[in-house]
Design brief:
cytoplasmic vesicle, 7-stranded mixed β-sheet, transport, Znf_Sec23_Sec24, Four Helix Bundle (Hemerythrin (Met), subunit A), protein transport
Length: 684
């Protein structure tokens, strides 16, 4: 938790010229009566209430008592000037919107969701000092029409209202739609018991989608609050309605200039809908349960632009996939989230922010808008050095996010960072941050494929890799034979990551890879932080046969290549979305007995998606390692058990990223040779 600074009615202190917020980069002068802005050098008066004397080195005597003078990150309580229509915001609302078409009822999914919500609504997020959550909840079900539910606490039974005009969606009730769960508990529980029965005999298989988002948006607008829609959906929306989609999946477009259209929405209405949602602080979380093409590129667009999260469970089976889905849902509902957010990045003179990548919406070139932002989302910013920088003063960055907290308080979160500047190129290479570069190149490439042929994007990535390394070779490295490949220490693994990015299913069009899978990965990566892209592109491979249950140490990860596997071993492989347990044909019987409680390799069932709970040190230790890996990642990874030389091994092998891919991606060694050739050409 960050320190919260509250200046009451006056609000945060800012520079008059560039509007930067009070921070450690402001220099106090004239005995503390004025301050000079570190970003634009403007001299400002210190407000009387904020005045403080300076000590013998020109620092305020209260320097360490004030977070905004001594810390890199802190929060301000915002005043009404920072609120919509200058009114204090209402606490946000969560609306649960369930697709009750034939497939979802039949698969048991609707009942599963309703049963889970009964316990989950007690865990809605709240501020530390609050007894219960301020978030209100509402419920909608839909197929070709929309059903709204009145769950007012004074009712004995919930009431259903049907909206069948899906072309012009309106909210049929105001009072009783959004309620406090604690007050309306019995009515809500009653409703959740009734929904699966209400639609038990349905044979309606067609669904709508855009009107569902529109309905949630209208409900939040009517209640004058921001919020999140949780939509549980399972098929292509083919019913006659706005946002209707057709199956446009076409393998003939692969490796042509038209391939980019597969990543663009097929109808324009989703862009307009996303814009409306962002303008009203309506974030859309989408849980998809497809068993065929669903057009993720179109359906996920609103989720992407509103800072929501997209979840996808292919061919959902109640018994094997419930744990993964329920864990994702629980985590998402309990997440710390900011609503109706807007972000500004300010810099000192000499450079400026020019591009932004993330689950964000931008109406102009400076304001990053997010209907919601949570702890798992990251925005990547590109800066342009367009004027003189100074080694003494360095380069300063201030990122300010204005948002509404879960209790409905308007706040500003401020992050400040000062970077060193150097006129020596070698210093830049020494301090280079390869993981951040990988994140940036992945996001910029995944943004570029919307407008450029994939072949061009791949070529640009290769050229940029070669350019960075050739520049080092030419200007920083000690002279040596041209035939030698020289990499700066801090960028030793850059070619590994670049090759992984080039081989990712998003950038490689192959008929075997579903279009939806590519669109899904593209969307996830756009919102990822550095640690998540690092693991996603280069998975972690742990040899667990060398696990010692008596110590606390986790076995060191090995390189992602087939040559690291051994017939007598067992390995865990994770990339943040999937988790594999690979077993060699001659894995020791005691290991197999300890993990699966069966006598031999042949007895292991690959159907299981969880390890059995066994009372032995080895099993307990492995389970605690898996739990730890899982706790650091936003998506729940379903465990897939893979036996050496059996069919599912194909999926696992695709993640051994240093090897040649079955889809034609280069091995790491081949890619190094290719980069080396490019470097030699550039230098000659």
């Amino acid at each position: 938790p960050l320190y919260v600074v509250n200046h009451g009615e006056t609000g945060p202190i800012r520079c008059n010229r560039c509007k930067a917020y009070m921070c450690p980069f402001m220099q106090f002068i004239e005995g503390g009566r004025r301050f000079q802005c570190g970003f634009c050098s403007c001299v400002n008066d210190v407000p009387p209430f904020f005045f403080q004397h300076l000590d013998h080195i020109g620092r305020r005597v209260d320097h360490y008592e004030r977070p905004e003078l001594s810390l890199g990150s802190y929060e301000y309580v915002a005043t009404l000037d920072y609120c919509r229509n200058n009114k204090p915001p209402n606490p946000p609302a969560y609306i649960f919107m369930i697709d009750v078409s034939y497939r979802n009822i039949n698969s048991g999914l609707v009942k599963l969701i309703c049963d889970e919500l009964k316990t989950l609504l007690d865990k809605l997020p709240r501020e530390e000092q609050e007894e219960s959550s301020a978030i209100r909840v509402g419920f909608v079900t839909y197929n070709k029409v929309l059903h709204f539910f009145n769950v007012k606490s004074s009712l004995a039974q919930p009431q259903m209202m049907v909206v069948s005009d899906v072309g012009e969606v309106f909210v049929p009730l105001l009072d009783g739609f959004l309620v406090n769960f604690q007050e309306s508990r019995s009515v809500v529980i009653n409703l959740l018991d009734q929904i699966p029965e209400m639609f038990a005999d349905t044979n309606e298989s067609e669904t709508i989608f855009a009107p569902v988002i529109q309905a949630g948006l209208e409900a939040l607008k009517a209640a004058e609050c921001a919020g999140k829609l949780f939509i549980f959906h399972s098929s292509l929306p083919t019913a006659e309605a706005p946002g209707k989609l057709r199956n446009r999946d076409d393998k003939k477009l692969l490796n042509t200039d038209k391939e980019k259209t597969l990543f663009q929405p097929q109808v324009n209405s989703y862009e307009a809908l996303a814009r409306d949602c962002v303008a009203n602080g309506c974030c859309v979380n989408l849980f998809l349960f497809p068993n065929q093409y669903m057009d993720v590129a179109s359906m996920g667009l609103v989720t992407m632009y509103t800072g929501g999260t997209l979840y996808k469970y292919n061919n959902f089976q109640l018994d094997s996939d419930s744990p993964q889905f329920l864990s994702d849902l629980r985590r998402d509902i309990e997440k710390k989230t900011g609503f109706d957010a807007i972000m500004r990045v300010r810099t000192s003179t000499g450079f400026r922010a020019t591009d932004f990548f993330g689950a964000i919406y931008m109406n102009n070139t400076t304001d990053v808008e997010m209907a919601a932002v949570d702890c798992d989302k990251a925005v990547t910013v590109e800066f342009k050095h367009d004027d003189k920088l100074n080694e003494d003063s360095g380069a300063l960055i201030q990122c300010a996010v204005l948002y509404t907290s879960i209790s409905g308080q308007r706040r500003l979160r401020i992050h400040n960072i000062g970077l060193n500047c150097s006129s020596q190129l070698a210093d830049i290479y020494k301090a280079c941050e390869t993981d951040a570069l990988t994140n940036f190149f992945a996001k910029s490439a995944f943004k570029a494929i919307l407008s450029q042929p994939l072949k061009t994007v791949r070529e640009i990535l290769l050229n940029q890799t070669a350019h960075m390394l050739a520049c080092y070779r030419k200007n920083c490295a000690s002279p040596s034979a041209v035939s030698q490949l020289i990499l700066p220490d801090s960028m030793k693994v850059l070619p590994v990551y670049m090759n992984c990015l080039l081989k990712s299913c998003v950038l490689v069009g192959r008929p075997e890879i579903p279009t939806d899978e590519r669109a899904y990965h593209r969307q996830l990566v756009m919102a990822m932080g550095v640690a998540d892209t690092q693991l996603f592109f280069y998975p972690r491979l742990l040899p667990i046969h060398s696990l010692d249950p008596r110590t606390d140490t986790v076995p060191a990860a090995v390189r992602c290549s087939e040559e690291r596997l051994s017939e007598g071993g067992a390995f865990i492989l994770t990339n943040g979305l999937s988790m594999f347990l690979w077993l060699g044909v001659s894995a020791p019987p005691e290991l197999i007995q300890g993990l699966f409680n069966v006598p031999s390799f042949a007895h292991i069932s690959t159907e299981a998606t969880l390890l059995p709970d066994l009372d032995n040190p080895f099993s307990k230790k492995l389970k605690s390692i898996l739990e730890h890996i899982q706790s650091q990642k936003p998506y729940t990874m379903k465990l897939i058990i893979v036996k050496q030389r059996e069919q599912p091994e194909m999926l696992f092998r695709q993640l051994l990223v240093e090897d040649k891919s079955i889809y034609g991606g280069a091995s790491y060694v081949d890619f190094l040779c290719c980069v080396h050739k490019e470097i030699c050409q550039l230098l000659s």
